[in-house]
Fold these 2 entries.
Entry 1:
Amino acid sequence: MSEQPTTLTKQPQVRAKGNFFGNVWRSLFRYGRLPEDAEGQSYVVFNSLFLHIHPVKVSKHSLRLTYTYGLGVIATILFLVLTFTGIWLMFYYFPSATEAYNRMLDLRSSVDFGFVLRNIHKWAAETMVVFVILHMARVFFTGAYKPPREFNWVIGVILLLLTLGLSFTGYLLPWDQLAFWAITVGTSIAGYAPVLGQPLRKFLLGADVVGQEALVRFYVLHVVILPGILSIFLAVHFWRIRKDGGLSHPADNDIPPEGGGQ
Amino acid sequence: MKKKQVRVQQPEIDRRTFLSTLGWAGVGVSAVAAALGNILYLKPAVDYGPATVIRAGRPDDYKEGIKELLEDERIAVIRDKKGFAAISVTCTHLGCTVRISDAGFECPCHGSQYDNDGYVTGGPAPRPLDWYQVSVAPNGELEIDKGVIVPPGTYFKVS
């Protein structure tokens, strides 16, 4: 933030005094009573792990719900939902060609709330793809891909590809007919890519046909590698939003005066 | 004289740049080697897929002129006057299982059509169905090797 004041006089004081809970609170959030002036409040945001993802100031323009519809936030929340439900599903599922399908059925019939978690995971996954695409459409139609935000658009495209990769790898895991044939066809399509196609197909399947090897590889990609890479790119994505000056908005002198325009 | 020569032979890069370049070259080579190692790690030297050689019952189980479908193995076995043939029923387009039709074979996924010998007669399939090598195992059963692809129209004498 270029307008950051150089003086540090308004740094909130972090003192270890008072009762136990007060100390814990101040250790976690690094402020006690909320400062009343804008600069002090800014420092609260700067200094808090939980708040620093937020910009200290936002353009009034970008606060309108209809500007973003919160599409990116929704996609992020869906990713968090998928992470938590996915970890819970991992307690029962394992990627064995003989067991995977039965475990999937057990989740539906023999585990309390198993069908709920499985369905939340499934629907969140499908809506995440939808919302990532809607989010990209919003960014496109508001021109938010233009400099200085062009790098973040590229990060966003990578995030889209990772989202689709997670969708694809997750599709095999129920190990039913739909999964088997979808991945048979999908990896065959990958095989048609020039030069890298067949090596890529072989890397994904670990064999010539969809079988136990493919199931393990898709599982590892789905639960560790792709979510890990996606998390890193997500962090860069958020960091760039702040560094590019928040959401796209008209230059400040373009904003019509109160009560006028729009 | 000597002093002048020393000045002329001043090295073009200084020691610091040389060592730094050498160091970074080492880091680069190590990084490439590590990347290659990781790629090789993902390509096992053994094939973990299903066995390619399968047994398909006794020759007498098959009637002449009928395509017998071995669903699990995804093979159609044909007995002919010329001998035995094993045709793959895996579509050469995207890997679906083709079904036996009046004209030969047809794929339910994207409509590829093949004649009785597996040659493409329609649809997106890029090449004919694979024909596999057929032989007789020591116990008299038919043995089909899915790892050995033979030209379409190759029948194997079995006696």
Entry 2:
Amino acid sequence: MNLLGLALRNLRRRPARTGLSILGIGLAVGSALALIALSHSIQDSTRESINELGDDLVVTQKGAADIFGGFIPEATIERVAAIPGVARVAGELFMFAPSTDQRSVLTLGWPETSYLWSRVPLREGRLPQPGEHLVAVLGDAAAAALGKKLDDELTLIGENFRIVGISNYTTVINRGLVLVPLIDLQEASYRMRQVTMIHVNVEHGAGAVEPGRVRAAIEALGNVTAATANEMLKNDRNVAVLDAVSLAISIIAVAMGALSVLSALMMATQERTREIGIFAAIGWSNARIMASIVLEGMSMCAVGCVLGVLLSFLAAFAFPHIPAIGNLISFRPSIALIAPVLGAACALCLIGSLIPAWRAIRMVPAEALRRM
Amino acid sequence: MSEAIERGSGSDKSPESEPLIVLKGVSRSYDGGAIAALRGIDLQIAAGDCLAIVGASGSGKSSLVNLLCGIDHASAGTVLWEGRVQRTRRDWARRRRLDIGIVFQEFNLIPTLTALENVEIALFGRGLSAPQRLTRAAVMLDRVGLEHRMHNRASTLSGGERQRVAIARAIVNQPKLLLADEPTGNLDSASAANVADLLFRLRQDTGQTLILVTHDDALAARCPRRVRIKDGVIIEDIRQGMAFRAGELPATP
């Protein structure tokens, strides 16, 4: 037998308390992972959706708090297109457009000449034809969520759009998109001659202008910012708020888990005061006594962390099957997310174990032995 | 008393041995001094001594034993182990790990561990591998006649068997000092006799110092030296061949 064996045996002596403590840690770690992964997944989904459209840079209004919050004059599109090194540009107006049943769908308006139309992966139907108005292409997930099919009508901001195509994007956000002609969305939303974002492809290969110079030239137009998808999301206030909220709730969740370890160990050491006195009486050092208690705590922590990770993977498996979640974001726990959460959980559980261990070694052995 | 009692000549040192433990003016009080369990104790115990500490319940016997093995601290005075002051809890923990074995009246075994594991845990921190620890623990259980019960949990053993396990645990490190605090107090008469015989036999085999705390005069009489304590004060120190009364105890070095 060794210290770990002794710790595990002590935990098995109190199966209900040990089980509840482990469950507490598991739920805490699982919740923290789920929250942080969800927060990251929103960024990931957005980044992937932009990357799927093939952008090198996105141009937004300078100082806009989030990607929905800025507007750029449509004329800026031509000015960006004229910058040396820019291969092609496409303006885009996007918003969560109210549909029927008080549902909002992420709707993108593209000019009829936009190169983005040519990249739409159609599953069925067709793209809007030049000069055609009040038509829409739905992502397959959006069509499923709205219960729409080809030639059905979809009401957006009070206007009826006829569904002419169903797209087949791979990223979660793009699968939930509704694509309409830019002019229709501008008129319906009273945002004539405005776009939210300009997609930019820069020239690559020999003779290409350095991307940094292209960015500088775009930003010199005034009141706009050119950035990669990653950079844009990093500066997005909504994403930052979401990150902060997720982090705060995660810390609280993990701290609650650590508190359950602290509580369990405090009770255990209280009950085992005499046993600790015995260890001291047979010559165990303070370090060994502390180690035996900390090992109990960290054993519960380890099992709880495994349980938490399993729960988070279970959530990752289940969430895509829940339309309200799966149609909007993808949920993928990763090593990069798991490691810091587990690190924080272990650190907090260690503190939760050290406190009762410290109390234990401060007892005078003779007094501890007198306790029942 | 069977042995002759004579007046001491001024030295309580055994002629052939050096002091193992020396208590100089040791006091122990509780509740901020309201309760004085021990008062100005001067005691010298030589290596190889076999000593009974006797006295009525509440006389301070257990308080004295707690100080002798360092599981409690003195309110005043000094405790020396082989001439060195033991100042910290760490010092005492090391002493108990290496040099002191304790047998308690209440056995103080871990009920969920087997007899073998209860003995093995006393070997932690000795730099032994698990097989070495288990072998030594098994040898000790064999020595106390419990080889057939070594894999039984302590909670399933009889009182006499538990005390034998406790004795095996106390001697597994081959301590210089074996302290037994009322070791037969919780046993029936047959088990008590067996345990007492075992303690004296072990002491005879090893020559280690034995301090036996008891209120059983018959058991105390088996020890060549008896220290009687009353109201926290040593009132009598009798050894085979010599005796000291209160006020005549020899000065400690």
